[in-house]
Design brief:
Blueprint (H helix, E strand, L loop, with lengths): L7 E3 L2 H6 L4 E3 L2 E2 L10 H6 L11 E2 L2 H8 L7 E4 L10 H4 L1 H12 L2 E6 L7 H4 L7 E6 L5 H4 L8 H13 L3 E6 L9 H6 L4 E5 L5 H6 L9 E3 L2 E3 L2 H8 L6 E5 L3 H10 L18 E3 L9 E4 L6 H12 L6 E4 L4 H12 L3 E5 L10 H8 L3 E4 L13 H14 L2 E4 L7 H7 L6 E2 L5
Parallel strand pairs: 2-5, 5-6, 6-7, 7-8, 8-9, 9-12, 14-15, 14-18, 15-16, 16-17, 18-19
Antiparallel strand pairs: 1-2, 3-4, 10-11, 13-17
Helix pairs in contact: 3-5, 13-14
Protein backbone atom coordinates (compact mmCIF):
# COMPACT_ATOMS: atom_id res chain seq x y z
CA UNK A 1 0.00 0.00 0.00
CA UNK A 2 1.49 3.33 -1.08
CA UNK A 3 0.94 6.53 0.86
CA UNK A 4 -0.93 9.31 -0.90
CA UNK A 5 1.05 12.36 0.19
CA UNK A 6 -0.63 15.19 -1.76
CA UNK A 7 -4.10 14.58 -0.29
CA UNK A 8 -4.90 18.26 0.37
CA UNK A 9 -5.03 21.03 -2.22
CA UNK A 10 -6.77 24.30 -2.95
CA UNK A 11 -7.32 24.48 -6.71
CA UNK A 12 -6.27 27.70 -8.44
CA UNK A 13 -6.50 29.03 -11.98
CA UNK A 14 -9.67 28.99 -14.07
CA UNK A 15 -11.30 26.16 -12.12
CA UNK A 16 -10.40 27.60 -8.73
CA UNK A 17 -11.75 31.03 -9.65
CA UNK A 18 -15.14 29.61 -10.64
CA UNK A 19 -15.52 26.97 -7.92
CA UNK A 20 -16.92 28.22 -4.61
CA UNK A 21 -15.35 25.23 -2.81
CA UNK A 22 -11.87 24.84 -4.35
CA UNK A 23 -10.32 23.13 -1.30
CA UNK A 24 -10.15 19.38 -1.78
CA UNK A 25 -9.19 16.57 0.55
CA UNK A 26 -8.69 13.27 -1.27
CA UNK A 27 -8.53 10.23 0.97
CA UNK A 28 -7.24 8.18 -1.99
CA UNK A 29 -5.11 9.25 -4.93
CA UNK A 30 -2.99 8.36 -7.96
CA UNK A 31 -5.74 6.09 -9.21
CA UNK A 32 -9.41 5.31 -8.74
CA UNK A 33 -10.96 1.87 -8.93
CA UNK A 34 -13.97 3.25 -10.81
CA UNK A 35 -11.56 4.06 -13.69
CA UNK A 36 -14.10 6.14 -15.67
CA UNK A 37 -13.09 6.61 -19.31
CA UNK A 38 -14.16 10.27 -19.33
CA UNK A 39 -12.27 11.15 -16.11
CA UNK A 40 -10.32 14.40 -16.41
CA UNK A 41 -8.10 13.39 -13.45
CA UNK A 42 -7.13 10.20 -15.25
CA UNK A 43 -6.34 12.19 -18.39
CA UNK A 44 -4.01 14.45 -16.39
CA UNK A 45 -2.20 11.68 -14.46
CA UNK A 46 -2.01 8.59 -16.66
CA UNK A 47 0.46 9.98 -19.19
CA UNK A 48 2.75 10.88 -16.25
CA UNK A 49 2.56 7.27 -15.03
CA UNK A 50 0.77 8.40 -11.87
CA UNK A 51 -2.51 6.52 -12.39
CA UNK A 52 -3.04 3.02 -11.05
CA UNK A 53 -6.77 2.17 -10.86
CA UNK A 54 -6.13 -1.25 -9.36
CA UNK A 55 -4.02 -0.04 -6.45
CA UNK A 56 -4.77 3.58 -5.45
CA UNK A 57 -2.55 5.31 -2.91
CA UNK A 58 -3.99 5.80 0.58
CA UNK A 59 -3.76 8.99 2.65
CA UNK A 60 -2.33 8.80 6.19
CA UNK A 61 -5.15 9.57 8.64
CA UNK A 62 -2.70 11.11 11.15
CA UNK A 63 -1.52 13.59 8.53
CA UNK A 64 -5.14 14.29 7.58
CA UNK A 65 -5.90 15.15 11.20
CA UNK A 66 -2.94 17.53 11.36
CA UNK A 67 -4.36 19.37 8.36
CA UNK A 68 -8.02 19.26 9.45
CA UNK A 69 -7.36 20.70 12.89
CA UNK A 70 -5.68 23.72 11.26
CA UNK A 71 -8.80 24.57 9.23
CA UNK A 72 -11.26 27.28 10.23
CA UNK A 73 -14.35 25.94 11.96
CA UNK A 74 -17.32 26.26 9.59
CA UNK A 75 -15.20 26.12 6.43
CA UNK A 76 -15.89 23.55 3.70
CA UNK A 77 -13.69 20.91 2.08
CA UNK A 78 -14.57 18.65 -0.80
CA UNK A 79 -14.08 14.90 -0.38
CA UNK A 80 -13.62 13.25 -3.75
CA UNK A 81 -11.94 15.78 -6.02
CA UNK A 82 -9.40 13.81 -8.05
CA UNK A 83 -10.61 10.35 -6.99
CA UNK A 84 -13.76 8.89 -5.44
CA UNK A 85 -13.58 8.87 -1.65
CA UNK A 86 -16.02 5.92 -1.56
CA UNK A 87 -14.34 3.69 -4.15
CA UNK A 88 -14.26 -0.03 -3.20
CA UNK A 89 -10.95 0.18 -1.29
CA UNK A 90 -12.74 2.33 1.31
CA UNK A 91 -14.29 -0.93 2.55
CA UNK A 92 -10.78 -2.02 3.51
CA UNK A 93 -8.95 1.14 4.61
CA UNK A 94 -11.84 3.23 6.06
CA UNK A 95 -9.87 6.45 5.60
CA UNK A 96 -12.97 8.36 4.46
CA UNK A 97 -14.90 7.05 7.47
CA UNK A 98 -12.18 8.24 9.84
CA UNK A 99 -11.88 11.58 7.99
CA UNK A 100 -15.61 12.25 8.39
CA UNK A 101 -15.26 11.63 12.12
CA UNK A 102 -12.41 14.16 12.24
CA UNK A 103 -14.35 16.76 10.26
CA UNK A 104 -17.29 16.35 12.63
CA UNK A 105 -15.02 16.82 15.63
CA UNK A 106 -13.50 20.03 14.28
CA UNK A 107 -16.75 21.44 12.87
CA UNK A 108 -15.69 21.43 9.20
CA UNK A 109 -18.33 21.05 6.47
CA UNK A 110 -17.66 18.30 3.94
CA UNK A 111 -18.92 18.10 0.36
CA UNK A 112 -18.93 14.44 -0.70
CA UNK A 113 -18.95 13.65 -4.43
CA UNK A 114 -19.24 9.94 -5.21
CA UNK A 115 -20.46 7.27 -7.62
CA UNK A 116 -20.98 4.78 -4.79
CA UNK A 117 -23.99 3.87 -2.67
CA UNK A 118 -21.66 3.11 0.27
CA UNK A 119 -22.19 6.68 1.49
CA UNK A 120 -25.84 5.83 2.20
CA UNK A 121 -25.10 2.62 4.09
CA UNK A 122 -26.23 2.52 7.71
CA UNK A 123 -22.59 2.56 8.83
CA UNK A 124 -21.92 5.98 7.25
CA UNK A 125 -25.36 7.44 7.84
CA UNK A 126 -24.73 6.87 11.55
CA UNK A 127 -21.64 9.09 11.62
CA UNK A 128 -22.47 11.87 9.15
CA UNK A 129 -23.55 15.16 10.75
CA UNK A 130 -26.59 16.55 8.90
CA UNK A 131 -25.43 20.09 9.64
CA UNK A 132 -22.00 19.48 8.11
CA UNK A 133 -22.52 16.82 5.41
CA UNK A 134 -23.34 17.78 1.81
CA UNK A 135 -23.65 14.82 -0.54
CA UNK A 136 -23.70 14.68 -4.34
CA UNK A 137 -24.18 11.24 -5.88
CA UNK A 138 -23.32 11.09 -9.56
CA UNK A 139 -25.54 9.52 -12.21
CA UNK A 140 -24.01 9.22 -15.68
CA UNK A 141 -26.50 6.78 -17.19
CA UNK A 142 -29.89 5.41 -16.17
CA UNK A 143 -28.99 2.13 -17.90
CA UNK A 144 -26.86 -0.02 -15.58
CA UNK A 145 -25.50 -2.16 -18.41
CA UNK A 146 -24.53 0.82 -20.55
CA UNK A 147 -22.64 2.43 -17.68
CA UNK A 148 -20.43 -0.65 -17.34
CA UNK A 149 -18.98 0.16 -20.75
CA UNK A 150 -17.18 3.24 -19.44
CA UNK A 151 -17.02 3.04 -15.62
CA UNK A 152 -16.61 0.37 -12.94
CA UNK A 153 -18.71 2.11 -10.31
CA UNK A 154 -21.82 1.03 -8.40
CA UNK A 155 -24.82 0.49 -10.75
CA UNK A 156 -26.85 3.68 -11.19
CA UNK A 157 -30.04 2.02 -9.97
CA UNK A 158 -28.37 1.48 -6.58
CA UNK A 159 -27.06 5.04 -6.56
CA UNK A 160 -30.58 6.34 -7.15
CA UNK A 161 -31.84 4.31 -4.19
CA UNK A 162 -29.01 5.80 -2.11
CA UNK A 163 -30.03 9.33 -3.14
CA UNK A 164 -33.63 8.69 -2.17
CA UNK A 165 -32.63 7.18 1.17
CA UNK A 166 -30.48 10.17 2.10
CA UNK A 167 -33.20 12.58 0.96
CA UNK A 168 -35.78 10.79 3.10
CA UNK A 169 -33.44 11.01 6.10
CA UNK A 170 -33.09 14.79 5.72
CA UNK A 171 -29.53 15.03 4.45
CA UNK A 172 -28.38 17.78 2.11
CA UNK A 173 -28.23 15.54 -0.96
CA UNK A 174 -28.27 16.20 -4.69
CA UNK A 175 -28.28 14.06 -7.78
CA UNK A 176 -25.26 15.01 -9.87
CA UNK A 177 -25.49 14.50 -13.64
CA UNK A 178 -21.79 14.55 -14.39
CA UNK A 179 -21.03 14.37 -17.18
CA UNK A 180 -24.53 15.04 -18.48
CA UNK A 181 -24.79 13.20 -21.81
CA UNK A 182 -28.48 13.15 -22.84
CA UNK A 183 -28.25 9.98 -24.95
CA UNK A 184 -27.22 8.07 -21.82
CA UNK A 185 -29.96 9.39 -19.55
CA UNK A 186 -33.69 8.63 -19.55
CA UNK A 187 -35.13 11.92 -18.30
CA UNK A 188 -38.37 10.20 -17.26
CA UNK A 189 -36.35 8.17 -14.75
CA UNK A 190 -34.51 11.31 -13.58
CA UNK A 191 -37.83 13.14 -13.13
CA UNK A 192 -39.14 10.36 -10.91
CA UNK A 193 -36.15 10.21 -8.55
CA UNK A 194 -37.33 11.35 -5.12
CA UNK A 195 -34.77 14.13 -4.87
CA UNK A 196 -35.71 17.66 -5.87
CA UNK A 197 -32.25 19.06 -6.46
CA UNK A 198 -29.92 18.36 -9.38
CA UNK A 199 -26.48 19.68 -10.21
CA UNK A 200 -25.37 19.36 -13.84
CA UNK A 201 -21.84 19.29 -15.21
CA UNK A 202 -21.20 18.86 -18.92
CA UNK A 203 -18.43 16.74 -20.42
CA UNK A 204 -15.15 18.48 -21.18
CA UNK A 205 -13.09 16.79 -23.86
CA UNK A 206 -9.37 16.58 -24.58
CA UNK A 207 -7.36 14.29 -26.85
CA UNK A 208 -7.00 11.64 -24.14
CA UNK A 209 -10.76 11.42 -23.52
CA UNK A 210 -11.45 11.25 -27.26
CA UNK A 211 -9.19 8.19 -27.44
CA UNK A 212 -10.63 6.39 -24.43
CA UNK A 213 -14.31 7.33 -24.40
CA UNK A 214 -16.33 6.35 -27.47
CA UNK A 215 -18.76 9.19 -28.19
CA UNK A 216 -19.86 11.41 -31.07
CA UNK A 217 -17.87 14.60 -30.45
CA UNK A 218 -19.10 16.53 -33.49
CA UNK A 219 -21.13 18.93 -31.30
CA UNK A 220 -18.19 19.74 -29.02
CA UNK A 221 -17.04 22.77 -30.98
CA UNK A 222 -16.25 25.36 -28.30
CA UNK A 223 -12.61 25.29 -27.21
CA UNK A 224 -11.56 26.85 -23.91
CA UNK A 225 -9.07 26.04 -21.18
CA UNK A 226 -7.47 23.22 -23.16
CA UNK A 227 -10.77 21.33 -23.58
CA UNK A 228 -13.57 21.13 -26.14
CA UNK A 229 -17.07 21.87 -24.83
CA UNK A 230 -20.64 22.00 -26.06
CA UNK A 231 -21.62 25.54 -27.11
CA UNK A 232 -23.72 27.50 -24.63
CA UNK A 233 -26.84 27.43 -26.80
CA UNK A 234 -26.67 23.63 -26.97
CA UNK A 235 -26.25 23.43 -23.19
CA UNK A 236 -29.23 25.75 -22.66
CA UNK A 237 -31.41 23.49 -24.79
CA UNK A 238 -30.38 20.42 -22.80
CA UNK A 239 -30.95 22.10 -19.43
CA UNK A 240 -34.42 23.10 -20.65
CA UNK A 241 -35.39 19.41 -20.68
CA UNK A 242 -34.83 19.16 -16.90
CA UNK A 243 -37.86 21.11 -15.75
CA UNK A 244 -39.09 19.18 -12.69
CA UNK A 245 -36.05 19.79 -10.48
CA UNK A 246 -34.22 22.65 -8.83
CA UNK A 247 -31.20 22.83 -11.11
CA UNK A 248 -27.77 24.37 -10.86
CA UNK A 249 -24.92 24.06 -13.35
CA UNK A 250 -21.23 23.56 -12.60
CA UNK A 251 -19.40 25.26 -15.46
CA UNK A 252 -15.83 25.82 -16.70
CA UNK A 253 -16.46 28.06 -19.72
CA UNK A 254 -16.47 31.76 -18.88
CA UNK A 255 -19.45 32.91 -20.97
CA UNK A 256 -21.57 29.92 -19.93
CA UNK A 257 -20.51 30.35 -16.30
CA UNK A 258 -21.77 33.95 -16.34
CA UNK A 259 -25.02 32.87 -17.99
CA UNK A 260 -25.86 30.19 -15.39
CA UNK A 261 -24.79 32.54 -12.61
CA UNK A 262 -27.16 35.24 -13.88
CA UNK A 263 -30.07 33.20 -15.21
CA UNK A 264 -30.32 29.86 -13.41
CA UNK A 265 -28.22 29.04 -10.37
CA UNK A 266 -30.13 29.85 -7.19
CA UNK A 267 -26.96 30.98 -5.43
CA UNK A 268 -25.03 32.89 -8.12
CA UNK A 269 -21.64 32.41 -6.45
CA UNK A 270 -22.26 28.79 -5.41
CA UNK A 271 -23.15 26.38 -8.22
CA UNK A 272 -22.99 23.50 -5.73
CA UNK A 273 -26.13 25.04 -4.20
CA UNK A 274 -25.48 23.69 -0.72
CA UNK A 275 -27.92 23.83 2.17
CA UNK A 276 -27.03 24.54 5.82
CA UNK A 277 -23.80 26.35 4.92
CA UNK A 278 -22.54 29.93 5.22
CA UNK A 279 -23.31 30.57 1.54
CA UNK A 280 -26.87 29.28 1.67
CA UNK A 281 -28.38 32.75 2.31
CA UNK A 282 -31.91 31.34 2.57
CA UNK A 283 -34.72 31.01 5.06
CA UNK A 284 -37.54 28.56 4.43
CA UNK A 285 -38.32 25.63 2.18
CA UNK A 286 -36.12 25.64 -0.90
CA UNK A 287 -38.37 23.03 -2.52
CA UNK A 288 -40.60 26.01 -3.34
CA UNK A 289 -38.05 26.73 -6.08
CA UNK A 290 -39.15 23.63 -8.00
CA UNK A 291 -41.88 24.44 -10.51
CA UNK A 292 -43.06 27.27 -12.76
CA UNK A 293 -42.56 30.63 -11.09
CA UNK A 294 -44.46 33.87 -11.78
CA UNK A 295 -42.53 37.07 -11.12
CA UNK A 296 -44.57 39.99 -9.82
CA UNK A 297 -43.20 43.54 -9.85
CA UNK A 298 -44.79 46.96 -9.52
CA UNK A 299 -43.38 50.48 -9.48
CA UNK A 300 -43.38 52.41 -6.23
CA UNK A 301 -45.62 55.09 -7.77
CA UNK A 302 -49.17 53.80 -7.33
CA UNK A 303 -52.73 54.88 -6.61
CA UNK A 304 -55.79 53.09 -5.25
CA UNK A 305 -56.80 51.66 -8.64
CA UNK A 306 -53.36 50.11 -9.16
CA UNK A 307 -53.37 48.68 -5.64
CA UNK A 308 -56.80 47.19 -6.20
CA UNK A 309 -55.78 45.61 -9.52
CA UNK A 310 -52.71 44.07 -7.86
CA UNK A 311 -54.71 42.75 -4.92
CA UNK A 312 -57.35 41.27 -7.26
CA UNK A 313 -54.57 39.47 -9.15
CA UNK A 314 -53.16 38.11 -5.90
CA UNK A 315 -56.60 36.89 -4.80
CA UNK A 316 -56.87 34.88 -8.02
CA UNK A 317 -53.68 32.87 -7.27
CA UNK A 318 -54.17 29.19 -6.49
CA UNK A 319 -52.41 27.03 -3.89
CA UNK A 320 -50.23 25.59 -6.67
CA UNK A 321 -48.96 28.95 -7.92
CA UNK A 322 -45.44 30.12 -7.06
CA UNK A 323 -45.00 33.90 -6.91
CA UNK A 324 -41.48 35.35 -6.83
CA UNK A 325 -40.95 39.02 -6.02
CA UNK A 326 -38.92 41.50 -4.03
CA UNK A 327 -42.11 42.51 -2.20
CA UNK A 328 -40.67 45.97 -1.64
CA UNK A 329 -42.97 48.57 -3.25
CA UNK A 330 -46.35 49.42 -1.70
CA UNK A 331 -48.23 47.39 -4.32
CA UNK A 332 -45.88 44.40 -3.99
CA UNK A 333 -46.36 44.44 -0.22
CA UNK A 334 -50.13 44.52 -0.65
CA UNK A 335 -49.85 41.45 -2.89
CA UNK A 336 -47.68 39.75 -0.26
CA UNK A 337 -50.31 40.38 2.42
CA UNK A 338 -52.93 38.66 0.24
CA UNK A 339 -50.63 35.73 -0.56
CA UNK A 340 -49.74 35.25 3.10
CA UNK A 341 -53.45 34.95 3.91
CA UNK A 342 -53.84 32.19 1.28
CA UNK A 343 -51.84 29.00 0.64
CA UNK A 344 -49.96 30.26 -2.42
CA UNK A 345 -46.23 29.48 -2.54
CA UNK A 346 -44.01 32.54 -2.11
CA UNK A 347 -40.38 33.34 -2.94
CA UNK A 348 -39.14 36.64 -1.51
CA UNK A 349 -35.88 37.92 -3.03
CA UNK A 350 -34.14 40.52 -0.88
CA UNK A 351 -32.16 43.47 -2.21
CA UNK A 352 -29.90 43.32 0.84
CA UNK A 353 -28.20 40.78 3.06
CA UNK A 354 -30.21 37.93 4.54
CA UNK A 355 -32.17 38.57 7.73
CA UNK A 356 -30.42 37.53 10.93
CA UNK A 357 -33.58 35.57 11.74
CA UNK A 358 -36.95 35.05 10.11
CA UNK A 359 -39.25 38.07 10.66
CA UNK A 360 -42.34 37.23 12.72
CA UNK A 361 -44.65 38.22 9.87
CA UNK A 362 -43.34 35.40 7.66
CA UNK A 363 -42.85 32.65 10.26
CA UNK A 364 -46.20 30.94 9.71
CA UNK A 365 -45.75 30.68 5.92
CA UNK A 366 -42.16 29.48 6.39
CA UNK A 367 -43.20 26.87 8.94
CA UNK A 368 -45.95 25.68 6.56
CA UNK A 369 -43.23 25.03 3.98
CA UNK A 370 -44.68 27.37 1.37
CA UNK A 371 -42.32 30.33 1.66
CA UNK A 372 -38.65 30.83 0.83
CA UNK A 373 -36.63 33.99 1.47
CA UNK A 374 -33.45 34.42 -0.62
CA UNK A 375 -30.65 36.94 -0.73
CA UNK A 376 -28.63 36.62 -3.96
CA UNK A 377 -25.91 38.84 -2.52
CA UNK A 378 -22.66 37.88 -0.85
CA UNK A 379 -23.16 37.37 2.87
CA UNK A 380 -20.31 39.78 3.57
CA UNK A 381 -21.51 42.55 1.24
CA UNK A 382 -22.26 45.86 2.95
CA UNK A 383 -25.98 45.71 2.18
CA UNK A 384 -27.86 46.32 5.40
CA UNK A 385 -30.02 48.86 3.55
CA UNK A 386 -31.52 48.57 0.06
CA UNK A 387 -29.72 50.62 -2.60
CA UNK A 388 -30.96 51.48 -6.08
CA UNK A 389 -28.24 49.31 -7.63
CA UNK A 390 -29.08 46.33 -5.38
CA UNK A 391 -32.80 46.68 -6.13
CA UNK A 392 -32.07 46.62 -9.85
CA UNK A 393 -29.86 43.54 -9.52
CA UNK A 394 -32.53 41.87 -7.38
CA UNK A 395 -35.22 42.55 -9.99
CA UNK A 396 -33.04 41.22 -12.81
CA UNK A 397 -32.26 38.12 -10.73
CA UNK A 398 -35.90 37.19 -10.15
CA UNK A 399 -37.02 38.06 -13.70
CA UNK A 400 -34.30 35.81 -15.14
CA UNK A 401 -35.53 32.89 -13.03
CA UNK A 402 -39.25 33.37 -13.67
CA UNK A 403 -41.30 31.38 -16.17
CA UNK A 404 -43.98 34.09 -16.36
CA UNK A 405 -43.87 37.82 -15.58
CA UNK A 406 -46.71 39.97 -14.30
CA UNK A 407 -46.26 43.73 -13.89
CA UNK A 408 -48.72 45.64 -11.74
CA UNK A 409 -47.70 49.01 -13.14
CA UNK A 410 -44.44 50.39 -14.55
CA UNK A 411 -43.85 54.14 -14.27
CA UNK A 412 -42.65 55.58 -17.59
CA UNK A 413 -38.88 56.06 -17.49
CA UNK A 414 -38.57 54.42 -14.07
CA UNK A 415 -36.25 51.59 -13.04
CA UNK A 416 -38.80 48.88 -13.75
CA UNK A 417 -39.71 50.39 -17.13
CA UNK A 418 -36.04 50.45 -18.13
CA UNK A 419 -35.53 46.83 -17.06
CA UNK A 420 -38.57 45.71 -19.06
CA UNK A 421 -37.28 47.43 -22.20
CA UNK A 422 -34.34 45.02 -22.11
CA UNK A 423 -36.49 41.99 -21.23
CA UNK A 424 -36.74 39.33 -23.95
CA UNK A 425 -39.53 37.43 -22.16
CA UNK A 426 -43.15 38.41 -22.71
CA UNK A 427 -44.99 39.89 -19.76
CA UNK A 428 -48.49 40.86 -18.64
CA UNK A 429 -49.26 44.38 -17.37
CA UNK A 430 -52.25 44.81 -15.08
CA UNK A 431 -52.55 48.61 -15.35
CA UNK A 432 -51.31 50.73 -18.24
CA UNK A 433 -51.26 54.52 -18.23
CA UNK A 434 -50.67 56.74 -21.24
Amino acid sequence: MREFKSFYKTVEGNEGEKCHYPTRLDTYGCGCQHDCKYCYAKSLLEFRDLWNPNDPSVADIKKIENKVKSLTRGSIVRLGGMTDCFQPCENIHKVTYKTIQLLNRYGIHYLIVTKSDLVASDEYVAIMDKNLAHIQITITSTNDQMALEYERATPSSRRIRAIEKLESLGFDVQMRLSPFIPDYVDLAIIDNVKCKRVIVEFLRVNAFIKRTFNLDYSLYTHKEGGYYHLPLETKKGLIGQLYTKEISVCEDCSLAYEYWQTHLNTLPDDCCNLMFSPSSKMIGNRNVLVGNKTAFLCSSTTDSSILQACQNWAESRSDEDIVISGFQSKAELSVLDVLLSKKTKIIMVLAKRMFEKCPQKYKKAVEEGRMLIISPFNAYANLDLVTKEAAQQRNEYLLNRANKIVIGYASAGGMLDNILKKQSKTYQVLVRRT
